[in-house]
Design a protein that fits this description.
- The complex is a heterodimer.
- Chain A is an alpha/beta fold.
- Helix content of chain A is 31%, strand content 13%.
- In chain A, helix 4 runs parallel beside helix 10 and helix 9 packs parallel to helix 10.
- By secondary structure, chain B is an all-alpha fold.
- Among the domains of chain B are: 262 residues, no CATH class; 71 residues.
- Chain B is globular, with a radius of gyration of 24 Å.
- Classes of the chains: A alpha/beta, B mainly alpha.
- The interface between A and B is large, with 80 and 81 residues.
Chain lengths: 414, 491
């Protein structure tokens, strides 16, 4: 959003800084050594994409058969149910269909078994408040700890590289909160230490010393940032788009493009997060959601195309949101906050080409949970299975405290 | 138990003289980092002359004198559109040939930044920033192109030093808020719950409401909408849903089609004066001004002051400033990224070369660290605790801005200045220069280990005479390093 005419480039910002100090302290050595660190446990990566605002799962993956509930939906959300032939039918799923905006992803990943969905996803602890719901989901259902579930996954996995955990964006999401080192990166292109020439290394050394023993978030993040700079430069130098992938415009595509470069550099990335905002469709949902979905699907399709079939077999993407939306439409051809939502699973290691989990056919208001899709499938079972089978996380007891783990059989080990 | 003293002067004098390392106890820089966007040499001088309590009183007076956008003449002179009505804003945009242009919203963002850096009424700007985030309405957003500035002007700035009840009542009749949270679209036949929920959860009582409360609030407030002709607030009784409501102990018969306004205002007054609202506001203000984890006792005292004064804002501030906890909290907060940029501008006394270019650069700098004022999308406002701002990218970008400002890299926007004046005299040698810069930029002598690290950076001994020192070339880099360090990152 705040990208407009005023957005000056880093290049312009750097103009005039480059030459600073280059002529002095000639004896000080510039180190360019790249420390990639130890290899991760199994080379797999899980990327969690959070659709902020409560994405309307029913408009992304919709029941298109009477047995799943399309007739009832047509009565209560007429402007939001795709007409016959307006959605992509998913064979063998009993009548589920994808929003047309999902076509690029469907075309690339469905037939190869690299795509699956779980509808009616929620947990009894998730309310209809964005902020409570996001916090609850991202803290992994614990109301007594302040760390995020992905932080606890990292703890379970043991030590890794500087680049083991990466959050796209300006800050870490709540799922990453906690003491394990992580990198929040708003842009690979801008991820550099300012100042060039002879002062660069001495300045980094001095800064390191200034933060020694400081403690707290800054005391942890400054060394992480400094140690990631050289690796980021090497990754940046090697960026290419492969397999004729075509990225759309926008921040989601830009972030995914950076992620491809980081994955290809094999720097031990285990978990990554990415936020896509603006899913809070209280008004004129059909247009707004479809445009956003189209951009998101195109960006993800470009990401998987760019990675190519071999590399993406080690990358699993989980797309989730804090809740689904009210089944009935509101005054503004939109939907208010609901409950059961949709999880998408993309990439390697999946039991794909299917819709997993429970579903209650929607035939009347009696099938709903206070007007909403019920939470029949627990998000923590889904995420737990993915990190257990793909990353090799052992016990989920600390990752999702109190979860009575019941895998849906949606991922494969290895 | 936190001690609340009878006066601010007592609190300063009697509080434990502690700070969290590496910052040192320094009530002047403390108050200038909490009630202002960072110290300036001029403000330090003013406090040295008149004392802290007098400075605070003067700031409260300045908040009235320089209400609106008048806190700095250069900034005020370019805020040409912020006084306009939505309809006049639209007319002006049409005349300019781009009727859906974002000019007014951009002007608001840039004016906000200019005032945060240069306004004489710093405390007012701190409170404006606080309530801007408390009642967040994102800027820019397409559909708010001619209304967003009226929210800033008529809701936040009009009441930032007054009563929260008045602010809340104004917000519930402001077109930008009504559009942002969809109340403008809510009707009796098809209610939109978005505003109702956030009014309860974010603006007032917090997560103590039920789903039935949301539905009742939403029903009671139907009828409040935005005119498609003037883009201003209007009330339409024809779309108001009547019928009795109860909300957290509030009851209203809501029997008339006028009750969207009459009953709605009664509900808003009730919610503003609710003890849960008092506690939430008090806690948030303590988090802004004291620490990420303020004590229960302080929050309770501040909430009591709010309720006891009929929801006035300044008594909350006064209670915080009379607390031991406030004066012992130096070093407990990490500056948010935009705050860090602005504090850098202030401590270096950066002046605009061209006010237009300067404001544009400020906008870009804060945007590049993910903290452009008013730009937070969701209705909960920018987070205010350090753990929410952890980011390697932001650190690197802040360090870039420090170096750019210290090295006068952006002379089309910011006036060049002679950085040797930062020594405040003639240093005896390289070590003395580092020591002087430390005091000038951080308000206190640098810890010994920090001075040593900076000496190593200069690659010379502390006794090196200035004539032979690498500082001739490295002064900007050294200034930037001090600002990169924890003594500037913390407040």
């Amino acid at each position: 959003m705040p990208f407009g005419e005023n957005n000056l480039t880093r290049r312009r910002f750097l103009a005039g800084i480059g030459a600073l100090g280059a002529s002095v302290v000639g004896s000080q050595v510039v180190t360019t050594k790249i420390a990639l660190g130890a290899a991760p446990s199994n080379g797999n990566t899980v990327i969690v994409i959070f659709l902020r605002g409560g994405a309307d799962g029913l408009r992304i993956l919709s029941p298109q058969s009477a047995s799943l509930g399309v007739n009832y939906l047509r009565t209560v959300r007429p402007a939001l149910v795709p007409g016959d032939g307006e959605a992509i039918g998913l064979d063998g799923t009993g009548g589920w269909a994808l929003n047309k905006a999902m076509a690029p992803l469907h075309q690339l990943l469905w037939a190869t078994g690299e795509m699956a969905f779980v509808p009616a996803v929620s947990n009894p602890g998730v309310s209809r408040s964005h902020f409570q719901a996001q916090q609850f989901v991202e803290q992994g259902g614990s109301t007594t700890v302040s760390t995020g579930w992905l932080d606890r996954v990292l703890t379970q996995l043991g030590p890794g590289t500087t680049f083991r955990a990466l959050a796209d964006g300006f800050t870490l999401p709540m799922s990453m909160a906690g003491n394990e080192a992580k990198i929040a990166m708003s842009s690979l292109a801008d991820f550099d230490f300012p100042g060039t020439g002879a002062i660069r290394t001495p300045a980094m050394t001095a800064l390191s010393a200034l933060y020694r023993g400081i403690g707290g978030p800054l005391g942890e993040d400054v060394p992480t940032a400094l140690s990631a700079v050289a690796t980021a430069a090497a990754i940046r130098a090697a960026v290419t788009v492969q397999n004729a992938a075509v990225y759309p415009t926008g921040p989601t595509a830009a972030a995914l493009k950076d992620l491809v470069a980081i994955l290809r550099a094999e720097v031990g990335l285990q978990v990554a997060t990415l936020d896509v905002s603006s899913w809070d469709t209280h008004t004129t949902e059909a247009n707004g959601l479809d445009a956003l979905l189209s951009n998101t699907a195109q960006a993800l399709a470009a990401f998987f195309t760019d990675l190519g079939p071999t590399r993406r077999s080690r990358v699993t993407v989980v797309v989730q949101s804090e809740f689904g939306r009210r089944v009935a439409m509101n005054a503004s051809a939109g939907t208010d906050h609901g409950h059961g939502g949709l999880v998408w699973l993309l990439g390697g290691g999946l039991v794909g080409k299917t819709v997993h989990g429970k579903w209650t056919p929607l035939t009347s208001a009696a099938d709903l949970d206070a007007g909403d899709v019920a939470g029949l499938n627990d998000p923590f079972n889904i995420c737990g299975e993915v990190v257990q089978k793909r990353l090799g996380v052992g016990s989920l007891a600390t990752v999702f405290p109190g979860l009575s783990y019941t895998p849906l059989g949606l991922a494969r080990t290895g | 138990m936190t001690t609340i003293y009878p006066t601010i002067a007592d609190a300063i004098e009697k509080s434990a003289k502690t700070a969290k390392a590496p910052l040192a106890w320094n009530p002047t820089d403390h108050v200038l980092s909490r009630l202002a966007f960072g110290p300036t040499p001029a403000a330090r001088t003013e406090i040295a002359r008149n004392g802290i309590p007098a400075w605070i009183s003067a700031q409260i007076a300045a908040g009235h004198t320089y209400a609106g956008y008048t806190g700095d003449p250069l900034v005020a002179a370019q805020a040409t559109r912020l006084g306009l009505s939505p309809a006049d804003s639209f007319t002006l945009l049409k005349l300019g040939g781009n009727k859906y242009g974002w000019d007014v919203m951009t002007q608001l963002t840039q004016t906000t930044l200019g005032l945060q850096v240069w306004s004489k009424a710093q405390l007012y700007e701190v409170l404006v920033d606080f309530f801007t985030n408390h009642l967040n309405v994102v800027c820019p957003r397409g559909d708010l192109w001619v209304t967003r500035h009226t929210f800033d002007r008529d809701v936040i700035r009009a009441h930032a030093m007054g009563s929260f009840t008045d602010m809340l009542l104004a917000s519930a009749r402001n077109p930008a808020m009504l559009l942002y949270l969809d109340l403008a679209q809510s009707t009796k036949s098809a209610v939109n719950e978005n505003y109702a929920r956030e009014l309860l959860e974010l603006h007032t009582v917090g997560l103590v409401y039920s789903e039935a409360d949301v539905k009742n609030v939403a029903k009671l407030l139907t009828g409040r909408t935005v005119s498609s002709r003037t883009f201003d607030y209007t009330y339409n009784p024809a779309i108001h849903g009547t019928g009795g409501v109860t909300v957290l102990g509030f009851r209203h018969p809501n029997s008339s089609t006028a009750d969207g306004e009459v009953g709605g205002d009664a509900l808003l007054r009730y919610l503003a004066a609710h003890p849960s609202t008092a506690k939430r506001l008090a806690r948030k203000l303590c988090i802004r001004l004291v620490s990420d984890r303020p004590s229960h006792a302080l929050v309770t005292a501040v909430a009591t002051a709010y309720l006891g004064s009929g929801t006035q804002i300044l008594p909350m501030l006064d209670t915080i400033l009379r607390s031991e906890e406030f004066w012992a909290s130096r070093g407990h907060k990490v500056r948010r990224p935009a705050e860090n940029v602005i504090a850098t501008m202030r401590i270096l006394e950066v002046r605009p070369a061209s006010i237009g270019a300067a404001l544009k650069y400020l906008q870009t700098m804060t945007q590049q660290v993910g903290n452009q004022p008013l730009a937070w999308g969701p209705p909960d406002g920018y987070p205010d605790v350090a753990t929410a701002w952890r980011s390697a990218s932001t650190l690197l970008m802040l360090w870039l801005h420090h170096l750019g400002l210290a090295a006068d890299s952006w002379t089309n926007a910011f006036a060049k200045s002679n950085k040797t004046t930062l020594y405040g005299g003639t240093p005896a040698n390289s070590g003395d220069a580092i020591a002087r810069l430390g005091v000038r930029l951080t308000g206190a002598p640098l810890p010994t280990a920090h001075a040593a690290a900076l000496q190593t950076f200069l690659a010379e001994s502390a006794t090196t005479p200035m004539a032979r020192s690498t500082l001739h070339a490295l002064l900007p880099a050294l200034v930037a390093l001090i600002l990169d360090g924890p003594s500037h990152a913390l407040r």
